[in-house]
Amino acid sequence: MRHPRPAALTAALLTCALTACAGSNASGKAAGPSITTSVPAATAEVGVITWNVPAGEPPTLDPARSAIESVSTIVANLCEGLFTLGPGYRPEPALATSVEHPDPLTYVIHLRAGVTFWNGDPVTTEDVLYSVQRILDPKLGSSWIGWAAHLDGIKATGDDEITVKLKKPDVVVPNFFAMPAFHVVQKSYAEKAGKDFGTAAGGVMCTGPYKVDDWAQGRQITLTRNDAWWNPARPKVKEVRFTFVTDPAAQVAALAGGDVDGQFSVPRAAHDQLAAKGRLLYGASLATTFLSVINPDGALSDLATRQALHALIDYQGIIQSVYRGTAQPLRALVPPQAWGYGRDVYQAEYDKLPQPAQDLAKARSLVAGSAKAKEKLVLAYTPAIEEENRIATAVADAATQAGMRVELRPLTAEQFGAVFSSPQARAGIDLLLSSGYLDFPEPLAYYQFFTTGNFYNFGGYRNKDYDVAIAAATVTDDADARAKEVAKAQAIMARDLVNIPIATQYVSVYHRSGLTGLVPRQSYLNTPWAAELGGA
Predict the structure, then answer these.
(1) Which one in 60, 110, 117, 502 has a CA-CA gap of 20 to 30 Å to 344?
(2) Which element (helix H / strand E) includes 359?
(3) According to the model, what pLDDT value does residue 16 have?
């Protein structure tokens, strides 16, 4: 779960970006812009493209620290894991060719032979083990350490083989083999660079389709194609220059004027303008925007208060006026696009949950009958994200209409980041508006955060039945059986309203005419998306 910043997309042979292909909501009704599931593959080479990163210049290119978009958008093209995510978010071989799962506690990973780093040195099991163990060092402070909660050990068990042993079964673990938790860097290079590894001064050494050519701090990062990449699907674009324009108006001017060739997370106010100039594509995402209970002891300790909040939100108004139709309301925290298995099970249980709709009369009635609901609520959010600024204001306004008192507390970027790691930073906050996403389509990866005692369970939610369902799902390999347990926990959470899902917003990407090959998917943050681009 990360802040901007985890059903799988089906790679059908459609070209929705070029034809009138309508998106749909959970009930199957047409809604919003077209969703792109496939585009023509790139066929022509391109010399240079300029790509903007709206989150700004990254502080590092170390894959161990790639849990924020400014880093991951670039590093995804540089460094590789043992596996990668394919078009349907399914793991595909990368630096490993296969994995065996002989028993619930063991994963035997077979490494690809003949892979070299950018400097020509071969990738060894020692490099792989070093990279994984480096993530596990608490002193490094990598957020990817979380995968290893049940790790017993990892070691080389052959010339091109490593074995991961767990203390207890955990079905979420193999998903991380395609994540930066298992991205491989060269041991000798990283040790020599020391604390400068990943910086403009120290550089980075990986195996991916692009390598760092130049980092002109404050201006741009330039990547050049790695012609020795092990993958025969060589990139068509020879050089990618990343710029870091953060002002939305300046982004639009650069894109519309042709100074920048493309960008993810396009400012919504300029969608119509840019769509008339190049290719503006949308993809269903694994992201969700929601309100979460931070203080369970104040006004929110009364279920009626939480129910009133759920009833007063104008979901459709937010979808249309804030997201301009590029999002859909949610009945549960995890969006349907993240159902990577057991889809029929998840759909049946999801359909039983109440459809989100504003009901001010219901909210007023709940507030009238609850003394707690009349107490002041402090809603924290980040004004740096335009959509969340507007949502927070809309929630506060609707709360006033329902007879509630919601005080808005805008947070700086530093304050907002601290909320996720410091109890002191959460003091005085009742509700937090935030957006997060799954890195892979496993609902369990999100729902496990709300079990009793979990580090990310900021509101201290406790429900024995919820914990039992999540624990059962964690050790269940059978897809439908696991989905039933997760859906059971999902229903409990929806009833208790420990968080209030608002919307899942689409992934958007714009690039100039003449380019093709890039389908918008959430996985652009962890897979080499630039390798797909090229000339039409």
Answers:
(1) 502
(2) none
(3) 26
The helix, strand and coil proportions of the chain, stated in percent and rounded to the nearest 5, come to 35, 20, 45
Q: How far is CA 116 from the centre of its chain?
A: 29
- Residue-range domains of the chain with CATH: 83-192 (3.90.76.10), 208-284+508-535 (3.40.190.10), 287-504 (3.10.105.10)
Q: Which of 177, 175, 109, 172 is nearest to 476 (CA)?
A: 172
Q: Which residues contact 29 (CB under 8 A, 6 or more apart)?
A: none
Quick check: 288 and 335 in contact, CB under 8 A?
yes
Q: What DSSP letter does each residue of 76-140 carry, written as one string?
A: TTT---SEEE-TTS-EEESSEEEEEEEETTEEEEEEPTT-B-TTSPBP-HHHHHHHHHHHT-TTT
DSSP, residue by residue, 65-92: G--SHHHHHHHTTT---SEEE-TTS-EE
How large is the C-alpha radius of gyration of the chain?
23
DSSP 8-state assignment for residue 401: H
Going by their DSSP bridges, the two strands 376-381 and 405-410 should be labelled as: parallel
Cα–Cα separations (whole angstroms), residue 114 to 36, 140, 231? 36, 30, 11
Residues 6+ apart with CB under 8 A from 471: 451
Do the strands 237-243 and 46-52 form a parallel or antiparallel pair, or are they unpaired? parallel
DSSP string, 218-253: TTEEEEEE-TT-SSSS--SEEEEEEE----HHHHHH
Quickly count: other Cβ atoms within 10 Å of residue 464's Cβ. 9
* Opening angle at CA 91, ends 53 and 154, nearest 5: 100
The Cα–Cα gap between 212 and 190 comes to 15
315 and 357 in contact (C-beta within 8 Å)?
Answer: yes
Helix (H, G, I), strand (E, B) or coil at 498: coil
Residues whose CB is less than 8 angstroms from the CB of residue 201 and which lie 6 or more positions away in sequence, other chains included: none
pLDDT of residue 528: 97
CA 270/CA 375 separation, integer angstroms: 40
Helix (H, G, I), strand (E, B) or coil at 444: helix
* Under 8 Å between Cβ of 94 and 82: yes
d(CA 283, CA 319): 16
Q: Report d(CA 89, CA 7) in Å as an integer.
A: 9
Q: What is the pLDDT of residue 6?
A: 31
Contact at 8 Å (CB) between 306 and 300? yes
Q: Which residues, given as ranges, of the chain have pLDDT below 50?
A: 1-30
pLDDT digits over 61-79, tens only? 999 999 889 999 999 999 9
Residue 413, pLDDT score: 81
Per-residue pLDDT, 417: 84
Tokens of 459: 């509101």
Residue 414 is predicted with a pLDDT of 85
Report which secondary-structure segment, H or E, holds 325: none
